[in-house]
Amino acid sequence: MHLHRLPRSCFVAVLLCTLLATVPLADAAAAASRPPNVVIFLADDAGWGDYGVNGNTGARLPNIDSIGRSGAQFDRFFVCSVCAPTRAEFLTGRYHPRGGVRGVSTGLERLNTDEKTLADAFKARGYATGAFGKWHNGSQWPYHPMARGFDEYYGHTSGHWGEYFDPSIEHNGKMIRDQGYIADLFTDRALDFIDRSRAGPFLCYIPYNTPHSPWTVPEKYWQRFKDKPITQTATDPSQENISHTRCALAMLENQDDNVGRVLRKLEALGLAENTIVVYFSDNGPNSWRWNGGMKGRKGSVDEGGIRSPLLIRWPGKIKPGTMVRDIAGAIDLLPTLTALTGVPRVGNKPLDGVDLSPLLLGQATSRPERLIFSHQNGQVSVRSPQYRLDSRGALFDMIADPGQTKDVADAQPAATAKLTQAVAAWRKDVFGLTSEQLPDAKAKGKGKGKAGNFVVPDDRPYPVGYAAFPWTPLPARDGLPHGGVQRSSGAPNSSYFVNWKTTDDRITWDIEVNTAGTYEVVIDYTCPVPAAGSSIELSFKNSKLTGKVAPGWDPPLYTNQDTLPRPAGESQMKDFHPLSLGTMRLEQGRGLLTLKAADVPGGYVMDVRRVNLTLQK
Fold it and tell me: Are the C-beta atoms of 482 and 572 separated by less than 8 Å?
């Protein structure tokens, strides 16, 4: 085309189109000159065997699988057997007991505030940082994700959430109610963050809460699976609930579609070539289903409870089809990602993880044999490149016997002794207790976290009152019921207090007030309409605040959300309304925040999901 022969108006139009067409190229060129972005996907309760790249023929996960096929796949990657510990190890590069994480609820999930995280390191280097999904390492500031290096947070800080459709959800310290399926909503917010951070660099962390129960998935996904034959079954088929298997795979298909949305966004913005994408899961499968013949599932420290997929791509840097066969773990992700991006780590605590970037970049050198330890609720197993010593002292040759069917401890006494000694040394190192001290620890421990056959003290109160984050939520999960009060289910994470009927009943939270001052008090509650009118009192040290439970608010349970019946230990949720009690003065220091009733004229006080304390300016 000869532009000088065009009319002026056409010339301008052609020039404008040409300039617009070069914008993505310009963006891509600019992106390539910056430090790489990082996008991290974390699945919740998906097993190693749920993925097509690992041989599952019933799963249709083209987007997730593509991360490994266009980059690297780890053959033996180990996480923890439950959710919060894995998150702590990923965030810090250190074994989870070192950071105070020894459980999944009632405060045991909190990551000590003196631990520095991956997000702290990236934020210090100038990255925009955002987390969109399930946090599960503490709800109150300074345990909150926005105190741990993330500029933005959207999701639920609890380990388990009972609302998957149109959920009540937190965004930057405010509870809101959004419309849609929860995994879709997490992705929507992540896409918006990527759009706003496109000038980069950015760290985008998307910890999905699927396929964790409740068994709830959009109908279009369920329709594809509800009658689908399941040809690959659990190692012991008699333990498998086929409906649960179908729903887990349907939830993963939804997750795959959301992963695809993020990958396409990176392509559209010209960022794909300069973005490291990571995908892994936080523990073994949450139901008995096909897992490559391995022993164990979620909650177990056997191979099937802790082996996870790890897929990493970085176009032009990591060769497609790379298979890493060295044993590795969640503790390795922080040192590896900081090495790949050139981001200096912050903090001076020694890491348990190692930098795996040479293996990813084809620069592998000889490495000393390493051991990876796994701990859950007092049970410890250890993995070497060849063996696993399980929590009962049985030894398995994982090369010859990947299903852990034959104990070779007697046949391999040297290996057994070496690994047994390593476990004892590890227990002493991470818990600070020798075997001789264990009985005393059991007798004197005040806390709830177990390690071996002893109780590890966990005496941390729930912090209240920080000007940087004025809102402090105190959910039922973190309180204690007294008298006739009960939790709505056996699983504390997504629960509320029920059966509050008398003036002898009460609810307490062990808190420590950081800033003395005036606090607004709002209780998320429900109450049968005829029972409204109880007088209640909230007290802390010498301060008291009284009020009335009114008006009555008695919404139905969300019984139409679930694809399959909700497990017995999980609460059916409902729409809680705010009950404003006014303001009260809280003095600095530690004590019990106590909620009780002075009279109960209607025979029932209320159900309580959360007490909200907001520091006033």
Answer: no
Stated pTM of the model:
0.92
**DSSP helix/strand/coil, 538:** strand
The reply to whether omega before 320 is within 30° of 0 (cis) is no
Give dist(CA 460, CA 148) in Å, integer.
Answer: 18
CATH topology of domain 378-456: Arylsulfatase, C-terminal domain (3.30.1120)
Q: For the domain 462-615, what is the CATH superfamily, name and number?
A: Galactose-binding domain-like (2.60.120.260)
User: d(Cα 44, Cα 20) in Å, to the nearest integer?
Assistant: 41
Residue 437, C-beta contacts closer than 8 angstroms, at least 6 positions apart: none
Phi, psi dihedrals of residue 614, rounded to the nearest 5°? -125, 120
Residue type at position 242: I
Name 129's Cβ contacts closer than 8 Å, sequence gap at least 6.
119, 122, 123, 149, 150, 151, 152, 202, 203, 205
CB 389 within 8 Å of CB 368: no
> Which pLDDT does position 419 carry in this prediction?
98
The fraction of the chain above a pLDDT of 70, given in percent, is 91
Q: Rounded to whole angstroms, how far apart are CA atoms 558 and 546?
A: 31
Q: What is residue 341's three-state secondary structure?
A: helix
Say which DSSP state 529 is in: G
For 366-418, the pLDDT digits (tens) are: 788 999 999 999 999 999 999 999 999 999 999 999 999 999 999 999 999 99
| Domain segments of the chain as ranges | 1-33, 35-366, 378-456, 462-615
Q: Which of 370, 378, 430 is nearest to 89 (CA)?
A: 430
Task: Say which amino acid occupies 91.
Answer: L
- Between strands 449-451 and 497-498, the pairing is unpaired
Q: What's the number of CA atoms in the CB half-sphere (13 Å) around residue 22?
A: 6
Q: Give the CATH number of domain 35-366.
A: 3.40.720.10
Which residue's entry shows tokens 């706003």?
196
Whole-angstrom Cα distance, residue 591 to residue 539? 10
